[in-house]
Specification:
heterodimer; A: mainly alpha; 8 helices; 37% helix; B: mainly beta; four-stranded antiparallel beta sheet; 2 helices; globular
Chain lengths: 236, 489
């Protein structure tokens, strides 16, 4: 039986080169410095911003990516999440956050749709998200698809929440969680950014929120009833 | 043992006949290159080039004919005497090579390695609770020092460690009473006399049997195993825990390190590798994804959450980037043979640490600094997460690690000289000297240099091993194994 390997997209190397070219042009002239475009403030600010946007998008894309039936590497997830946090910190300190629409208000918008929100390249390409029946009484009858992660995602993956979690506080989800599964992030810890990688049994419906400057993405999960029941049976 | 099946060389040791991926011998820089292809009829090595009369088929060495993803080598390890070399692959197989006895008649063919045993160590499994496959890929192999005629090794995939016994059988009993030579049961009424079975010589058979299976102790992926110098215990390490086992006991293990936070949201660091000290049986070290190493003493407490020593180099703020943390993640940690130093490998460098000095490494070697400007691309194509291993030579004077484009690097700690070599068929001809390679970073590219943009990032050398006493190294390049040895004057 063949093992499964991760496919490397060699061609992406060239695409990425173009985008971060400005930063790397600098690099070729100053080899020994080893920085990613941090030298010249005026010129590199823009390229750094570009690079940050690129890295942000890639982070999200990678965190959402999964291989059916194969566990994700915890080390990789942790490194990606830490990079995401770092970018978010920077965005926050740059004052980017202030441009954001408050997440709660997004819920109330009637025309709240997926195509309004996404700036993340990976998500906007639409990785055929699964259909999600609306399970919770949040008053929103919008379907929020963009889950690239299905319930086959490893329990070791990370979970993230928007500040929107407050809205769902009254819903008891303790029975969905096990000691081995990562539970939801504290709400607001990653605001305005959120990433959800749910374990196979867990599900919550998360309306999307968006940001004008940065990229926001919240991922939604199917509830696999069978897995869920299995989990409860095993626990008891 | 060998025969040709069409274009492929097959080994009759196992049933069904196994196919062996390319094994070639070359030599290191400055020394004579001894090239030998696996051949059922040993050829005269004084020949300068292959001739048609030899049964050498170059298609054997092409890796696309029959090589599949399962053939990708995932670990290589010499045993403690250097007599055996084990490789594990993605398909869960272990292939063990044995060094042949040196022959006086052909001194230039000093002890070359032949396939000794091949067996399926791990099979793919399915975790029904999580609906996930457990890969059969062999992550690590560690040998036990030899204590009798048989050889023992530990092999592990993501979840289960197994102890394998490899033993030879060259006699078999003949003359059974109840069955005849073909194994058919004899009709008891035809037996008129009794005889005692006698041991008769037979063709050498090497068999591998699983003696212990150490399972169900790891929720996360096992990244390393290490045998203790007491030869009674070993540790297995996953992303968050280190477990201590007794080699005789499979249903119990002791958790000695646990960095799992109560709240998984707070997890920011994982364990990447762990190893026992080569002489002190109570000391071990583990490395993290944040670039730190912790040395622990098992005598202090049952749970070694408090480290004895903490090794970390403060970050240089001028080189900080989005990728700083990722490239600081340590992919391998190895004690020196003398037990005084630690070596760590992160994405761009190899560092040697003095166990007595925690605040900075003793030495830092740049493996491929020209990649520093390409980190964004390497992040996109995931290469930045590649985990390279590093290895000491027997005298702790030279360290070696792999890179991309099938390059590998050696650093002489005394002379501070370093060399880049390439494991590639095209560059390895009989009796030729292996040429040092050089990557040019911008500016004019000299002849024979290769530019950074031409590097093939799909050809990475992650796994290497060094003979414990001699200058013989084994290098895994995807699904090909290269064994290099130096020339004897």
């Amino acid at each position: 039986m063949l093992g499964r390997g991760v496919k490397r997209k060699w061609s992406c190397l060239e695409e990425a080169e173009v985008v971060s070219e400005a930063a790397e042009d600098k690099q070729q002239h100053e080899d020994e410095d080893g920085q990613d475009g941090l030298l010249d403030p005026s010129r590199s600010d823009m390229s750094r911003l570009q690079q940050r946007q690129l890295v942000l998008g890639l982070c999200l894309e990678k965190l959402q990516r999964y291989q059916a039936g194969v566990e994700l590497s915890l080390r990789r997830s942790v490194l990606l999440i830490n990079t995401l946090r770092q970018i978010q910190e920077e965005m926050r300190s740059d004052g980017v956050g202030s441009c954001d629409v408050h997440p709660d208000s997004c819920l109330l918008r009637d025309d709240f749709r997926e195509d309004v929100t996404v700036t993340c390249p990976g998500c906007s390409e639409g990785e055929s998200p699964p259909e999600l029946p609306s399970q919770e009484a949040n008053g929103s009858d919008q379907q929020k698809p963009p889950a690239a992660v299905s319930d086959a995602v490893n329990a070791m993956g990370y979970l993230g929440d928007l500040a929107l979690d407050d809205i769902f506080e009254d819903i008891d989800t303790s029975m969905y969680e096990t000691s081995d599964l990562p539970s939801a992030w504290a709400s607001g810890s990653l605001w305005p950014l959120s990433v959800s990688l749910w374990p196979d049994e867990d599900v919550k419906l998360r309306p999307q929120s968006h940001s004008t400057a940065g990229s926001l993405q919240s991922c939604l999960m199917d509830l696999n009833e069978l897995d869920h029941i299995m989990e409860i049976l095993v626990k008891s | 043992r060998w025969h040709w099946e069409g274009e492929n060389l097959a080994c009759l040791n196992s049933n069904p006949p196994e196919q062996i991926y390319g094994v070639r011998y070359c030599s290191m820089t400055g020394w004579e290159q001894v090239c030998r292809f696996l051949d059922p009829e040993p050829a005269d090595l004084s020949m300068e080039e292959e001739s048609d009369t030899r049964k050498i088929n170059n298609s054997f060495l092409r890796d696309h004919n029959y090589a599949t993803e399962a053939d990708i080598i995932s670990t290589v390890e010499f045993n403690s005497s250097g007599e055996l070399l084990a490789t594990g692959d993605k398909g869960g197989r272990v292939v063990v090579f044995q060094r042949e006895q040196e022959s006086k008649s052909q001194p230039q063919r000093r002890g070359e390695y032949n396939v000794y045993s091949t067996f399926q160590s791990h099979e793919p499994e399915f975790d029904y609770l999580k609906s996930l496959e457990i890969e059969e890929k062999i992550n690590k192999i560690k040998w036990l020092p030899q204590q009798n005629a048989a050889y023992f090794l530990l092999s592990t995939n993501d979840k289960t460690v197994k102890l394998w016994k490899i033993s030879e059988r060259d006699k078999r009993p003949e003359g059974y009473n109840l069955k005849d030579e073909d194994g058919r049961i004899r009709d008891p009424s035809t037996i008129t006399s009794l005889r005692v079975p006698v041991l008769q010589p037979m063709d050498l058979m090497v068999e591998a049997t699983a003696r212990r299976v150490f399972s169900n102790a790891h929720t996360y992926h096992i990244n390393s195993i290490s045998v203790n110098s007491d030869l009674q215990t070993f540790i297995s390490t996953d992303d968050l825990r280190v477990n201590l086992w007794n080699l005789e006991i499979t249903d119990r293990s002791f958790n000695i390190v646990d960095i799992k936070p109560a709240n998984m949201e707070e997890l920011t660091e994982v364990i990447t590798s762990a190893e026992f000290h080569p002489q002190q049986c109570h000391t071990f070290a583990y490395s993290s994804s944040k670039g730190s190493i912790r040395l622990c003493d098992m005598r202090q407490a049952a749970l070694c959450d408090k480290h004895c020593k903490y090794f970390e180099e403060p970050e240089d703020p001028s080189t900080r980037s989005f990728f700083s943390e990722i490239i600081s993640s340590i992919s391998d940690v190895k004690f020196s043979h003398n037990g005084r130093y630690l070596m760590t490998r992160d994405y761009l460098t190899v560092k040697v640490w003095d166990l007595q000095m925690e605040n900075k490494p003793l030495e830092t070697y740049q493996v491929h600094d020209y990649l520093r400007g390409k980190l964004c691309s390497l992040y996109e194509n995931d290469c930045i997460f590649d985990k390279f291993e590093c290895v000491w030579n027997g005298s702790d004077s030279v360290i070696m690690t792999g890179s991309y484009n099938n390059f590998f690097r050696m650093f002489d700690r005394n002379t501070k000289r370093d060399v880049t070599l390439e494991a590639s068929r095209e560059n390895s001809k009989p009796r030729a000297i292996l040429k040092p390679r050089k990557v040019c970073v911008g500016g004019k590219r000299r002849k024979d240099e290769i530019s950074v943009d031409s590097l093939d990032f799909s050809k990475k050398i992650l796994h290497t091993t060094w003979h414990p006493h001699e200058n013989i190294i084994a290098v895994a390049a995807t699904n090909n194994l290269y064994i290099f040895q130096d020339k004897v004057n």
